Amino acid sequence: AQSVTQLDSQVPVFEEAPVELRCNYSSSVSVYLFWYVQYPNQGLQLLLKYLSGSTLVESINGFEAEFNKSQTSFHLRKPSVHISDTAEYFCAVSEFGSARQLTFGSGTQLTVLP
Amino acid sequence: NAGVTQTPKFQVLKTGQSMTLQCAQDMNHNSMYWYRQDPGMGLRLIYYSASEGTTDKGEVPNGYNVSRLNKREFSLRLESAAPSQTSVYFCASSDGQGYGYTFGSGTRLTVV
């Protein structure tokens, strides 16, 4: 069975600073990987995903994540954060052939400080 | 707008009461899911339906039942609510091809 570990529950960072949110997964088979973002009192929105191909994937708002198979990681990065990036971020994994069920990490609260 | 619609958005129940959370999607997705979200625990799968006519238990099914009414609708029922079921409940759907889920906006349930 797959599992996801988000190593940091809270990440405070100043505006315009870089940030990395860490995610490690465990699975015995090939996986799809996702990052979701949740703004206060809202549902989850897909931020980016890795299905196959290039191991570096990007979102439209400047986030990127790199799939590292040897380290079983899928860390999320942004070179310069904005106040509006304050939200909770969830890493998720789906195994091939598992009816595409997503398993989520416990989440990382990113707080961008002025 | 296309998406997943959940009702109600908020609900307060007394212990022992029953209720049904409704979910509908208009994206012609085959698969639908119910998750609960609790602080520090991420989202945990309660039940899912891989296709119309099928349902399966997830990680935390105890105390819940589901019905896949048709391809669009997937409801979650609490037969006898308990305080431990206080949570935010999310419905989601997917095309089953591994391209991620579309989530509803959630139902915030409090059981007193």
What does this structure look like?
The complex is a heterodimer of chains A (114) and B (112). Chain A has 114 residues and is mainly β. Helix content of chain A is 0%, strand content 54%. Chain A contains no helices and twelve strands. Chain A has strands spanning 3-6, 10-14, 19-21, 23-26, 31-38, 44-50, 56-58, 64-68, 73-78, 87-95, 103-104, 108-113. In chain A, the strands form three sheets. In chain A, strands 2, 5, 6, 10, 11 and 12 form a six-stranded mixed beta sheet that branches. In chain A, 39% of the residues are buried. By secondary structure, chain B is mostly beta strands. Helices cover 0% and strands 52% of the residues of chain B. Chain B is built from no helices and eleven strands. In chain B, strands 2, 4, 5, 6, 9, 10 and 11 form a seven-stranded mixed beta sheet that branches. In chain B, strand 5 and strand 6 form a beta hairpin. The mean pLDDT of chain B is 92. Classes of the chains: A mainly beta (114), B mainly beta (112). The A-B interface holds A 4, 6, 9, 32, 34, 36, 42-46, 49, 51, 90, 94, 96, 99-107 and B 4, 31, 33, 35, 40-45, 48, 50, 56, 58, 90, 92, 94, 96-106.
List the SSEs and their pairings.
The complex is a heterodimer of chains A (114) and B (112).
Chain A: E1 3-6, E2 10-14, E3 19-21, E4 23-26, E5 31-38, E6 44-50, E7 56-58, E8 64-68, E9 73-78, E10 87-95, E11 103-104, E12 108-113
Chain B: E1 4-7, E2 10-13, E3 19-25, E4 31-38, E5 42-49, E6 56-57, E7 64-68, E8 74-78, E9 87-94, E10 102-103, E11 107-111
Counting helices, strands and paired strands, the structural category of chain B is mainly beta
Low-confidence stretches of chain A: none
Main sheet characteristics of chain A: 6 strands, mixed
Task: Classify the helix fraction of chain A into a percent range.
Answer: under 10%
Average pLDDT for all residues of chain B: 92
Strand content of chain B: over 45%
User: Radius of gyration of chain A, Cα only, in angstroms?
Assistant: 14 Å
**Shape annotation of chain B:** globular
Q: Give helix % range of chain B.
A: under 10%
Structural class of chain A: mainly beta
Q: Which series of helices and strands of chain B comes N to C?
A: EEEEEEEEEEE
Compute the average pLDDT of chain A. Answer: 90
Q: Biggest sheet of chain B, in brief?
A: 7 strands, mixed
Order of helices and strands of chain A: EEEEEEEEEEEE
Runs of chain B in which pLDDT lies below 50 for 5 or more consecutive residues are none
Distance between termini of chain B? 35 Å
Evaluate the radius of gyration of chain B: 13 Å
The overall strand count of chain B is: 11
